[in-house]
C-alpha cells in the first residue's frame, strides 16, 4: 500500500534508497535525539521495515518528495517490541532530512499515516514517543491531536544515557 499527500509519496523501500537513507541517518539534525545506528544499521532498519510490511501491511514508508522524487525521510507505523508497559501498542514515528524539516512535511506525512492506521488498518490506538528534549517532535504529536500520557525510561538505552528518558503520547480512533 502506498499513500499520497499533496507534496509527498509514501511508498515501500527500494534498493536505491539505501545510500540516501544512510546519509540521512548520519545527519546531525536527524541523529541528535536518536540512539546511533551500528555499522550497517540503515540496511538492517530498511530490512525491518520491509519485514513489518510483509507481516502487517504497514510499516515505515519511504518519504519521497513528489516534485523532485527525492527520498527525504521515513514515516510510518510499527509494533512496539521492547519491554515497556505499552508493549502491545502500535507506534507512529517520522524521520526527515534536515533540509526538509520545518516545512510541515512531517505533519503532512504523519497525518496520512494516522488516517491510514485508523481507517485502513483498523487500529484503535496509536502511540508516539521521543526524548523530552525533542520539542519539535512532541510539538508535532500535540498538533496531530495526540495526548501526553507520561514518561518512561527506554530500556533499549543504558542507565544514565542522556536519551533514556522519553515522553509518551497517544491518540485513539474516534469512538474508542
Q: How far apart are the first and last residues' alpha carbons, in Å?
A: 25 Å
CA-atom Rg in angstroms: 15 Å
Shape: globular
CATH topology: Aminopeptidase
- Write down the domain tally: 1
Overall average residue pLDDT: 94
pLDDT below 50 for ≥5 consecutive residues: which ranges? none
> What is the CATH superfamily label?
Gcn5-related N-acetyltransferase (GNAT)
Number of strands: 8
Which terms would index this structure?
5 helices; 176 residues; 8-stranded mixed β-sheet; single chain; Aminopeptidase
Q: Strands, helices and their partners?
A:
Blueprint: E1 3-4, E2 8-11, H1 18-24, H2 28-31, H3 41-56, E3 60-65, E4 71-79, E5 90-96, H4 105-119, E6 125-131, H5 135-143, E7 147-153, E8 165-172
Descriptive account of the structure:
- 26% of the residues are buried.
- The protein has an 8-stranded mixed β-sheet, sandwiched between helices.
- The two termini are 25 Å apart.
- By secondary structure, the chain is an alpha+beta fold.
- The chain is built from 5 helices and 8 strands.
- The protein is globular, with a radius of gyration of 15 Å.
- The protein has one domain: Aminopeptidase (3-Layer(aba) Sandwich).
Amino acid at each position: 500500500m502506498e499513500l499520497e499527500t499533496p507534496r509527498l509519496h509514501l511508498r515501500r523501500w527500494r534498493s536505491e534508497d539505501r545510500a540516501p537513507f544512510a546519509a540521512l541517518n548520519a545527519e546531525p539534525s536527524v541523529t541528535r535525539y536518536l540512539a546511533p545506528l551500528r555499522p550497517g544499521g540503515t540496511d538492517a532498519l530498511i530490512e525491518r521495515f520491509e519485514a513489518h510490511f510483509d507481516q502487517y501491511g504497514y510499516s515505515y514508508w519511504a518519504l519521497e518528495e513528489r516534485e523532485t522524487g527525492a527520498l527525504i525521510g521515513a514515516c510510518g507505523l510499527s509494533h512496539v517490541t521492547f519491554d515497556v508497559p505499552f508493549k502491545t501498542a502500535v507506534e507512529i514515528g517520522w524521520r526527515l532530512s534536515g533540509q526538509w524539516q520545518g516545512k510541515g512535511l512531517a505533519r503532512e506525512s504523519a497525518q496520512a499515516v494516522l488516517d491510514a492506521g485508523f481507517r485502513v488498518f483498523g487500529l484503535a490506538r496509536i502511540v508516539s514517543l521521543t526524548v523530552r528534549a525533542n520539542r519539535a517532535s512532541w510539538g508535532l504529536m500535540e498538533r496531530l491531536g495526540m495526548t501526553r500520557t507520561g514518561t518512561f525510561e527506554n530500556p533499549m538505552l543504558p542507565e544514565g544515557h542522556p536519551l533514556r528518558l522519553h515522553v509518551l503520547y497517544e491518540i485513539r480512533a474516534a469512538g474508542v
